[in-house]
Design a protein that fits this description.
The complex is a heterodimer.
Chain A: H1 2-14, H2 19-50, H3 62-69, H4 71-92, H5 95-107, H6 110-139, E1 151-162, E2 166-172, H7 176-184, E3 190-204, E4 210-217, H8 221-225, E5 231-232, E6 247-250, H9 252-258, E7 269-272, E8 275-282, E9 303-308, E10 327-332, H10 338-355, E11 361-369, H11 378-413, H12 415-423, H13 428-461, H14 473-505, H15 516-553, H16 556-559, E12 561-566, H17 575-590, E13 595-603, E14 606-610, E15 620-626, H18 630-634, E16 638-641, E17 652-656, H19 657-663, E18 673-677, E19 707-715, E20 730-734, E21 743-749, H20 752-766, E22 775-777, H21 778-782, H22 786-821, H23 823-831, H24 836-872, H25 881-907, H26 911-916
Parallel strand pairs in A: 4-9, 6-8, 15-20, 17-19
Antiparallel strand pairs in A: 1-2, 1-10, 1-11, 3-4, 3-7, 3-10, 5-8, 6-9, 7-8, 12-21, 12-22, 13-15, 13-21, 14-15, 14-18, 16-19, 17-20, 18-19
Helix pairs in contact in A: 1-2, 1-3, 1-4, 5-13, 6-11, 6-13, 6-14, 7-10, 11-14, 11-22, 12-14, 13-14, 15-22, 15-24, 15-25, 17-20, 22-25, 24-25
Chain B: H1 4-14, H2 20-27, H3 31-43, E1 47-51, H4 54-60, E2 66-70, H5 72-97
Antiparallel strand pairs in B: 1-2
Classes of the chains: A alpha+beta, B mainly alpha.
Chain lengths: 918, 98
């Protein structure tokens, strides 16, 4: 029994021994065990024959044999380890030969190489470009800012009580007095602290004033940011003292683009509003203050003028010392962390709360790293990065799948070559190594192409991007990781699958033997790719349809109407000043020969009730306060009653048809009384800053002031926005003559392009100090959301084109593969009389069948998308032939192109050779 | 430099113990040590192996045995190692006397 057990151990252990050594190994061990047994028997027999104890030194028992057999597993394992080492050694050795062979093989298949490089290079370059843009956003250099990593953004939180709304916590900017107190008690964790407060300015150098956004900044501002001037010097602490000479720093872009880059700008005097400042220096190119510009935004639209903060004290309209409007930025001292900075500022915040218990109750400071952009939580950033990267990585993954397909097809074409290698004694590891080297060479070529593509993309995108885009170490690491992933996905997997086939089939079969499961999977992959790219193209087409519908929706009056908002708040106007300016501007405009009519408006939102409605009913209407000529200017069609006369005032209203229907479902609404809560635009309501919103579940109000109003006229609904087809219900009230604050000019003209400048001039003549008069056509205002739609449509369309390109490569791979599988069959067909045209038709039919399935699946995907889009965009119908047929046509054309090369190859098959190979 | 195990196995072979179990008995080493050591020594060319004649194994009524013997370089290595180990042991004698 013990010997049998020992034998069993040997047999089981033999499974661990490498197959090539197994038989000999088993024989050796069994030989030993059996020899042992035989010797024991012989020994016992000898003893019996001699009748005496022998002098045999080592009496053996079966126990010893059994114990010895336990060494067999160990021996087997050590053999297995040794053979694995051997395999590794052979796998590593000889790669140089492999590279040579691969280069030779690839140079024979330039079209294969080109397809692979395009497939992978596209995805790689888009991924690398997107990654480096994200990298620049999060970690890159910011123009005019030194060591971004140690800059922090600070905001203040405290409890605020608002009338009727209870108490709530709020994060707000700083007031000037907050800054002074916190700066005085900031401690050693922050090496500097500065604030900026944005303000619109009109700046002039000799000539006409230009509008620009500017900022009042504290004395340390540029020191904290570490900005270096492009010309002259920047603002210093001594500029920010009362009584200091009025100094200003202008932005590089303002200087270059608006002041023609005049060389002697430093020391010149400029007019900001109506005050003279001396330009002491020019900020560096790209610098726009703490916040950098958005992608695609001209730096001119950001801060381009910096004035010392003390100048804000008596600037018209600027919030007074106690109002929060300043953004704070700090520089961490060497060795300090966000936490130490936070705790250091907590002490200052406590002092703030103690000094001003009414307004700064429970004050505390939040500290965020500037390096992480503007979001609060790293998680959000991670989410954003993942979302943004997933799109190009999907494209890359499709590319990888395609290349895997291509490589598989190539491996099938090379099955015979691989079989010969096997037959000549190559191990599977060696074949896999050869194919891996091939994948690596292809991946490196693609990575190089991707890197070049990314560099070109970045160079193209740089003008629209606020931060310098560079291919740095982070990007390099990302690309290396990406390339490794590409090698794994597109090279190793097909290599493994390909050699399995070759190893199994060896020389016994021809290349015709094809795994039908494989090809079915491959067909499915191609159909899915086509469907996705078609769905993307259809979506893009639908969005473009919507864009056209938006342009068609523009009301005719809007095309010839100009709109300009006059922000007189910044000048500290009284209601009498406002009225004077309004009357003056309107009179000048109405007398202009090109102006058909001109009006002023103040658009607001109302709540309204019928005489019988409950007060808790929440129903909103747009519209606002308008002058008598407004209806004619805006092209509002009168439906019933009359519009305002200059003598109208107080409790009369013109309502839109939708409001009239709500209030009086049947019959004429003219003469009806209804109730309105009108946001006050009287002088007392100015500078009211609402700091909190009511918390959910809390009623914002217990009583509402309602005013009875009589309807004197009904006008047709006026659409306000292109993306919102049912027009807002609107209530129009006569503009009170003592209305204070900003108002908007509306000018109807026969020549909007020429008049835009005239309107600006008229306003400037009436009030030269007024900054920021942007004159727009009502059409542009109406289409303000179309830019986004266009950008989304174009980017989805672009992605669709790339996806289609990749899908066509996938299709090509499958067609080439099918042709190679059907070589003999095609040979036979040609031998029995098929002409090349028939063979080409055969291949094309197969491609077209895939495309038809792909199109059907694509429409199946696109339909729910279209249904979803219909609720968000104007003018989309789910079965719009204009959006559906062109992409399908493109898909079909691409299919025919992708089938053309395999078809030609099939037609060129020599029947004699094909049959001889059989 | 030979390990103790390898040295013992080589010594056993030089004293005429020819196959695995025999070497185990002579060296008092377990089979899980002796066999891997034999494989290593054979791979590095200090030991060679030969299979027993079919006839003799049939006579004994068992599978063939694999016999190991020292190669020339195995003998050289062994004598070199023995000299070295002897020198080392002298070192210890001196120390214990002192």
């Amino acid at each position: 029994v013990k010997t049998a057990l020992a034998r069993a151990i040997v047999h089981v252990s033999a499974c661990l021994v490498p197959a090539s050594l197994r038989a000999r190994w088993r024989e050796e061990w069994l030989g030993e065990i059996e020899g042992q047994r035989a010797e024991g028997r012989g020994q016992r027999a000898g003893q019996r024959a001699a009748g005496k104890r022998t002098a045999w030194k080592r009496p053996r028992s079966n126990w010893r044999t059994l114990r010895a057999a336990f060494g067999a597993p160990r021996d087997a394992i050590s053999l297995r380890i040794e053979s694995a080492r051997q395999t590794l050694r052979t796998a590593v050795a000889g790669w140089r030969t492999d590279v040579r062979q691969v280069v030779r093989a690839l140079s024979d298949a330039p079209s294969h190489v080109a397809t692979v490089v395009i497939c992978l290079g596209t995805g790689t370059s888009i991924s690398v470009a997107v990654f480096s843009a994200l990298n620049a956003m999060l970690f890159g250099e910011v123009p005019g800012m030194a060591d971004r990593g140690s800059l922090v953004r600070l905001s203040l939180g405290y409890e605020i009580a608002t009338e009727g709304m209870g108490r709530g916590r709020s994060f707000v900017p700083w007031s000037a007095s907050d800054f002074e107190m916190l700066d005085a008690s900031r401690g050693p964790a922050l090496s500097g602290l500065a604030v900026e407060g944005f303000w619109p300015f009109a700046v002039s150098l000799d000539r006409e004033a230009v509008d620009t956004r500017g900022a009042f900044v504290s004395g340390h501002y540029f020191d904290v940011l570490g900005t270096q001037p492009a010309l002259g010097r920047l603002l210093r602490t001594e500029d920010d003292r009362p009584g200091a000479p009025a100094a200003a720093v202008i932005g590089f872009h303002l200087w270059r683009d608006r002041f023609d880059g005049v060389l002697n700008i430093v020391g010149r005097s400029i007019l900001v509003g109506d005050r003279a400042f001396t330009v002491v220096g020019v900020a560096p190119a790209g610098f726009t203050g703490i916040q950098f510009a958005d992608i695609g935004e001209n730096p001119l639209e950001r801060t381009q003028l910096w004035l010392p903060l003390h100048q804000a004290a008596n600037w018209p309209g600027v919030p007074h010392r106690e109002l929060p409007w300043l953004n704070a930025v700090g520089r961490l001292a060497p060795g300090a962390t966000l936490d130490t900075a936070r705790s250091a500022l907590t002490a200052g915040a406590g002092r703030l709360a103690a000094a001003n218990p009414a307004a700064r109750r429970g004050a505390y400071v939040t500290v965020r790293s500037h390096a992480l952009g503007f979001n609060d939580s790293p998680f959000e950033i991670l989410q954003g990065v993942t979302l943004l990267l997933s799109l190009p990585l999907t494209v890359l993954a499709i590319g990888c799948a395609n290349v895997a397909n291509l490589q598989l097809a190539r491996a099938t074409e090379r099955a015979r070559e691989l079989s010969v290698r096997f037959a000549l004694g190559a191990s599977r590891a060696q074949i896999v190594r050869l194919l891996t080297v091939e994948a690596c060479v292809l991946a490196l070529l693609s990575a190089a192409a991707g890197w070049i593509g990314a560099a070109l993309l970045l160079r193209t995108a740089q003008p629209a991007f606020p931060l310098p885009l560079a291919l740095d170490g982070h990007v390099l690491a990302f690309s290396v990781g990406l390339t490794a992933g590409v090698i794994g996905l597109s090279g190793l997997a097909p290599a493994w699958l390909g050699t399995r086939r070759a190893a199994l089939e060896g020389l016994k079969s021809s290349t015709r033997a094809g795994g039908s499961a494989h090809s079915r999977l491959r067909h499915a992959l191609v159909i899915v790719q086509m469907a996705l790219s078609l769905a993307l193209l259809v979506t893009s087409g639908l969005l473009l349809t919507s864009l056209r519908a938006m342009h068609d929706n523009v009301p005719p009056a809007a095309r010839t109407t100009l709109v300009a908002r006059l922000d007189v708040d910044t000048l500290g106007y009284s209601s009498a000043d406002t009225r004077r300016l309004r009357d003056d501007v309107l009179a000048r405009l109405e007398s202009h020969p090109r102006v058909q009519s001109a009006a002023a408006e103040r658009m607001l939102e109302f709540r309204y009730w019928s005489a019988t409605d409950d007060i808790s009913l929440t129903r909103f209407a747009g519209g606002g306060y308008v002058t008598a000529s407004w209806f004619q200017t805006a092209g509002a069609r009168l439906v019933a009653g009359r519009t305002f006369q200059p003598s109208d005032g107080g409790a009369t209203a013109v309502v839109s048809e939708s409001v009239a229907r709500q209030l009086v479902p049947a019959g004429s609404a003219v003469g009806t009384l209804f109730y309105l809560n009108s946001p006050a635009i009287t002088p007392q309501s100015r500078h009211t800053i609402v700091l909190t919103r009511p918390t959910p579940g809390q009623s914002p109000e217990t009583s509402v002031a309602r005013h009875p109003v009589e309807i004197i006229g009904v006008v047709a609904d006026i659409p306000q926005r292109a993306d919102d087809p049912p027009p807002d219900p609107a209530v129009y009230l006569p503009l009170p003559s003592d209305a204070a604050g900003m108002f908007t000019l509306r000018v109807r003209t026969n020549d909007p392009d020429a008049m835009a400048r005239q309107v600006r001039d008229v306003v400037r003549q009436a009030e030269p100090r007024l900054p920021g008069v942007a004159v727009q056509t009502a059409e542009a205002l109406f289409l303000r959301d179309s830019g986004e739609v266009r950008a989304v449509a174009l980017s989805i369309g672009g992605l669709g084109v790339v996806a289609l390109l990749l899908a066509s490569a996938g299709l090509y791979a499958v067609m080439a593969y099918l042709v190679s599988l059907r070589r003999q069959e095609i040979g036979i067909r040609m031998a029995i009389g098929a002409r090349p045209g028939d063979v080409i038709g055969l291949v094309f039919r197969q491609g077209v069948r895939l495309a038809v399935f792909g199109s059907l699946a694509g429409f199946a995907i696109a339909t729910p998308i279209a249904l979803g889009l219909r609720s968000a965009f104007v003018g989309i119908s789910p079965f719009d032939p204009a959006a559906m047929l062109p992409p399908a046509g493109v898909l079909m054309a691409v299919t025919l192109m992708a089938s053309a090369i395999p078809a030609r190859r099939a037609a060129k098959i020599d029947p004699i050779r094909a049959l001889r190979d059989e | 430099m030979l390990s103790y195990t390898a040295l013992f196995v080589l010594q056993a072979l030089s004293q005429g113990h020819k196959f695995g179990f025999d070497i185990m008995d002579a060296t008092q080493l377990p089979s899980g040590t002796v066999y891997p050591a034999l494989r290593r020594l054979e791979a590095s060319g200090l030991v060679e192996s030969a299979w027993e004649e079919n006839a003799s194994s049939r006579k004994a009524g068992r599978p063939r045995r694999r016999y190991y013997q020292l190669t020339r370089s195995g003998r050289e290595q062994l004598s070199e190692a023995e000299t070295r180990y002897r020198a080392v042991s002298k070192l210890f004698e001196k120390r214990s006397r002192a």
